[in-house]
Amino acid sequence: MAQDYDAKINLHLDINHGLDRVTELVQTRLIECGWRDQVRLACRKAITENEKHVPTVDDLITIVTPKARSMVPDSVKRELLHELESILINVDKFGYSKSF
After folding, report:
1. What DSSP string describes 30-81?
2. Nearest of 37, 1, 17, 22 to residue 85 by alpha carbon
3. With left for phi above 0 and alpha for psi between -120 and 50, is residue 99 left, alpha or beta?
4. Averaged over 50-67, what is the pLDDT?
5. Interatomic CA distance for residues 100 and 94, integer angstroms
6. How confident is the prediction for the chain on average, in pLDDT?
7. E strands in 1-100
C-alpha cells in the first residue's frame, strides 16, 4: 500500500515537474534570505580556524551541516512544507495511475 502511494507521488512529480519546482523554490528562497552567504562564511571560518590542518570537503560538511540546517529560516521551512502538502493533496485528488 505504501509502495503504491510512493509510486503515485513519484509519477505526479515526474508528470508535473514537481521536484524541479520544489528544488528551484528552495534554492531561490535560500539565496534571497542570505542563507547561502552565511553558509559560505561558515565554511571560510571553519577553514581559517584550522590553520594547522586544512579541513577536507568531508570535514567541512561535518562541521558546517548542523549550523547550516539551523540557519534555514522558519519562513522557508513553512513555504516548503506548504508546497509539499499541495503536492500530496493533488496526488490524493487526481490519483494518478501508471496505466494510461
Report:
1. HHHTTHHHHHHHHHHHHHHH-SSSPPPHHHHHHHHHHHHHHTS-HHHHHHHH
2. 22
3. beta
4. 91
5. 13
6. 85
7. none
Share of the chain above pLDDT 70, in %: 87
CA-based nearest residue to 98, from 19, 12, 16: 12
| pTM score of the predicted model | 0.73
* Tens of pLDDT, residues 7-56: 777 776 777 677 888 899 999 999 999 999 999 999 999 999 877 888 89
Amino acid in the structure at residue 74: D
78 grid coordinates? 513553512
Query: Please, what sign has the CA dihedral across residues 40, 44, 50, 56?
Result: positive
Which residues, 6 or more positions from 30, have their beta carbon under 8 angstroms from its beta carbon? 36, 72, 76
Overall residue count recorded for the chain in this entry: 100
Asked if 84 contacts 6 with a C-beta cutoff of 8 angstroms, the reply is no
Task: Answer whether 32's CB lies under 8 Å from 70's CB.
Answer: no
C-alpha 71/C-alpha 41 separation (Å) is 12
